[in-house]
Amino acid sequence: RDFCLSRGLGDVYKRQRIKKPKFGFGFSGDRSAELNVNAIGMLAITVVEAHDLPKMDIGGKSDPYVKVFVHDYEHKTKVIKKDLNPKWNETFYFNVLDLSGQIVFLVYDSDIGKDELIGQIIIPLAEIAKPNIKDLSLI
After folding, report:
1. Would you tell me how many other CB atoms lie within 10 Å of the CB of residue 138?
2. Within 13 Å of residue 64, how many CA atoms lie on the same side as its CB?
3. Calpha distance 24→135 (Å, rounded)
4. Residue 34 in this model has a pLDDT that exceeds 80
5. pLDDT value at position 22?
6. Euclidean distance between CA atoms 16 and 43, whole angstroms
7. DSSP 5-47
8. What is the pTM (predicted TM-score) of this model?
9. What is the b/e burial string over 29-46, where b = at least 16 CB atoms within 10 angstroms of the residue's CB?
10. Which residue from 12, 79, 82, 132 has the least number of CB within 10 angstroms?
11. Which run of H or E residues covers position 70?
């Protein structure tokens, strides 16, 4: 099954073994994050939670975390140990240089040595710039 953005956007995004992640989006007036001189605005992204992640570890669990990329900026959530339904509720701020880029979410299982990719989601920035879109759930 493919993920589909909620709120009737109708665009389907390819999935790789991730079920029901939820992310919040919003353009922010928060002054704790520094706005780049070349940016057209600042984007606040909240990585909320994921459900039914695959078992990646021998013990039947995963140690998931999420990396979020916008343009050349990257943020990473904390690792949630031994959880297939993690709740992060972490907000990150990104300078948006233009709307031609995309938001990339990579979900990993933290392991000793090399972390394993659980899945990824890519959302065009232009999709979240539409009026009245504040929260998007991928189902």
Report:
1. 20
2. 30
3. 4
4. no
5. 52
6. 25
7. BTTTT--EE--SS-EEEEEEEEE---TTSPPPTT-SEEEEEEE
8. 0.73
9. eeeeeebeeeeeebbbbb
10. 132
11. strand 64-70
Tell me what pLDDT residue 114 has.
Answer: 92
Query: Scanning the structure block, which residue is given the tokens 């002054």?
Result: 31
- Please, are residues 119 and 17 in contact by the beta-carbon 8 Å criterion? yes
Q: What DSSP letter does each residue of 81-112 carry, written as one string? A: TT-SS-EEEEEEEEEE--TTSEEEEEEEE--S
Look over the chain and give the mean of its residue pLDDT values, rounded to a whole number. Answer: 75
In angstroms, the CA 69 to CA 102 distance is: 8
Residue 69 CB neighbours (<10 A): 17
Beta-carbon contacts of 121 under 8 Å, excluding residues fewer than 6 positions away, are: 3, 13, 15, 18, 21, 104, 105, 138
How far the first Cα of the chain sits from its last, in Å, is 9
CA distance 85 to 83: 6
